[in-house]
Structure formats: structure tokens, C-alpha cells
Amino acid sequence: MVTPAFTTTAKGQRRSIPEKPADFAGSLPEYVVYNQLLRFGLKPNQDFQFQTRFGGGKIERGGMVIDFLFSNPPGLAINVQGVYYHYEQGSVNIANDLLAREILAGDGISLIFLDDDDVMADPTFYVREALNFKDYSKYSLGR
Asked: What is the rounded distance in angstroms from the CA atom of residue 96 to the CA atom of residue 129?
């Protein structure tokens, strides 16, 4: 039997972290966001797409994969940022993330970054804020 993992929210409430199914293609923080979107009543392949490829995805030079691309609300995309990979592995990853934001902005899409440590601490708050086009990531100017 697996012992459930717990985290404490920003309000000091204890909540369990869902276990990621083996067939889920993304990371645990991506699954937590996915699960939270479902809890908000959003439907996959109707309200949002998971891991959408742009410009050939990661296979093609200049391509990218967007974690969550929304039709409801329209013009929104969310990428879950692993703190270690996206912030601590140097300027190339940071530049690529910010370039992705600019490329999508050219198509009328706002790319909101969610840091994995924030998502794991309080998914309800951070996902709700992202759905309202608010970015609290380490890339945002307000942090």
C-alpha cells in the first residue's frame, strides 16, 4: 500500500498530493495541474489540450511543446516549470522559455508559467490565478 504524500497550502491547510498514473505522459506537477483543471470543471480536448506541439515540437529546431493550451479561456497557455531544469541549468533554458512566450504572444496567446514548487504547495490558488492570466512564476516581474 502506498502512503499518500501531503503538502501544506499557503493558508496552512494540509492536503494530499494525488499519485500520478503510470500512463500519464507528463510530470507529477503537470498531473497536479491537470487534476486541478478537472476539479474546476474543465474538460480535456474540449476546454484544453495537454502537451501541444508548436513548430514541430521539441524535435524541430525552434519547436516547442506547450503543457496546456486552452480554448476556454481562449488565448491562454500554461507551462509548468521545473525549478531545477528551467531556472538552475543556465541562461539557455531561461532564454528558450522567454522566447516561447514571445512566439506565442505573436499568435495572440498569453503563456503563463507555473513553478512546480508553487503548484505542489497550493495548486488551487496557482491554477486559478493562471486561468485568470496571472503569472506568479520566477519569470514574472512581480516576484
From this structure: 23
Each residue's pLDDT tens digit, 16-50: 767 888 888 888 999 999 999 999 999 999 999 99
SS3 63: coil
Q: Which residues contact 114 (CB under 8 A, 6 or more apart)?
A: 29, 33, 78, 79, 80, 81, 126, 127, 130, 136, 137
- Cβ distance 117 to 83 under 8 Å? yes
Ramachandran region of residue 41, left (φ > 0), alpha (ψ -120 to 50) or beta? left
The three cell numbers locating residue 87? 531556472
Average predicted confidence (pLDDT) for the chain: 81
Main-chain phi, psi angles of 65, to 5 degrees: -120, 125
For the chain, the domains span: 63-137
- Whole-model pTM over 0.85: no
User: Coil, strand, or helix at residue 39?
Assistant: helix
